[in-house]
Amino acid sequence: MSTSIARHAIKEVTIIGGGLMGSGIAQVTATAGMKVNLVDMNEDILKKSGSSIQKSLERVAKKKFSDNPEGGKQFIDDITGRISFSCNPEEAVQSSGLVIEAIVENLEVKQKLFSALDKVAPKETLFTSNTSSIPIKDIAVSTQRLDRFGGLHFFNPVPMMKLLEVIRIPETTDETFNSLLEYGAAVGKTTVNCKDTPGFIVNRLLVPYMAEAVRMLERGDASAKDIDIAMKLGAGYPMGPFELADYVGLDTMKFILEGWSKNYPDVEIFKQSEMMNKLVAEGRLGRKSGKGFYDY
Ligand code: NAI
């Protein structure tokens, strides 16, 4: 190990938000041997985060230790033993080298959190957000540590998905960025580097692609089913754009397009879709509500 890696190695991580993403990030971070403080608003939510991590690890252990249940139990206990739960973010960050924020997708709420943490966290602690659609810089300006701020964008489900987008704002130092890349490698992800642009790499391409598929449907060019079949069999995609939109959630898609079309009114491919807005208003949110473009 080079001295620079040894100097940056992150031993303890505070993850704020114990929902879908935060629980997964906590799991992979603890699996990599780091200590984790998982923070959320109240004990009940944290209990749910704990049990979702436990269940997910049981699935991993079942495969990994299929002929050694004792080893599997030990594997789970070792990992969960490294995770502490807290409702007090200011206290949790005190000995952490890295903060990963995965709370509600709302700029003001994220700014408020980081502004408070900036005042109490150790000077060298790196701050990151897992935001999908808010510019990292807009969140970072709530702190005095823009040089130690970046984005770590994970994918759902975190333990399964191999990619981690690592985002830098103009002020992010090479030292900070390299530490974030090292953290990504430590948690077993393939990292890609990206500037602080809307949707980073994956969502920048996927969201307009799904929105254009909806526009095709609105124009009556083809049916949702035929567009999905075409992209699966003609482009080799594992899911068609409507299946993917239902998986992501039409409310999430609508929310992302709303933000982008407001910030970039001249970009045609960021325009909102009337059909998608109507489906959301009718409660057709995709798989999670049992119906979206398709019924489940
Ligand atoms: P979620 O709703 O499952 O979890 C958010 C959690 O944050 C909740 O448990 C909530 O109680 C907690 N929370 C809210 N405000 C808080 C605060 N001030 N302090 C502490 N905890 C707070 O949301 P999810 O899906 O995990 O998303 C979290 C972030 O990750 C968002 O920024 C989202 O854009 C991003 N993201 C989501 C992906 C997805 O597929 N769901 C993929 C990649 C990024």
What does this entry look like structurally?
The protein is α/β, with parallel strands linked by helices. The protein folds into two domains: 3-195, 3-Layer(aba) Sandwich (Rossmann fold), CATH 3.40.50.720; 204-287, N-(1-d-carboxylethyl)-l-norvaline Dehydrogenase, domain 2 (Orthogonal Bundle), CATH 1.10.1040. It has helices spanning 3-8, 20-31, 43-64, 69-80, 89-92, 107-120, 136-140, 174-186, 202-219, 224-235, 241-248, 250-263, 274-281; strands spanning 12-16, 35-39, 83-86, 98-101, 126-129, 149-153, 163-168, 190-195. Helix 8 (174-186) links the parallel strand 7 (163-168) and strand 8. Helix 9 (202-219) crosses helix 11 (241-248). The radius of gyration is 20 Å and the shape is globular. It starts with a helix and ends in a 15-residue tail after the last helix. The chain binds 1,4-dihydronicotinamide adenine dinucleotide. Residues 16-22, 39-41, 45, 102-105, 109, 113, 130-132, 153-156 line the site of 1,4-dihydronicotinamide adenine dinucleotide.
SSE map:
Layout: H1 3-8, E1 12-16, H2 20-31, E2 35-39, H3 43-64, H4 69-80, E3 83-86, H5 89-92, E4 98-101, H6 107-120, E5 126-129, H7 136-140, E6 149-153, E7 163-168, H8 174-186, E8 190-195, H9 202-219, H10 224-235, H11 241-248, H12 250-263, H13 274-281
Parallel strand pairs: 1-2, 1-4, 2-3, 4-5, 5-6, 7-8
Antiparallel strand pairs: 6-7
Helix pairs in contact: 2-3, 3-4, 9-11, 12-13
The structure holds 1,4-dihydronicotinamide adenine dinucleotide.
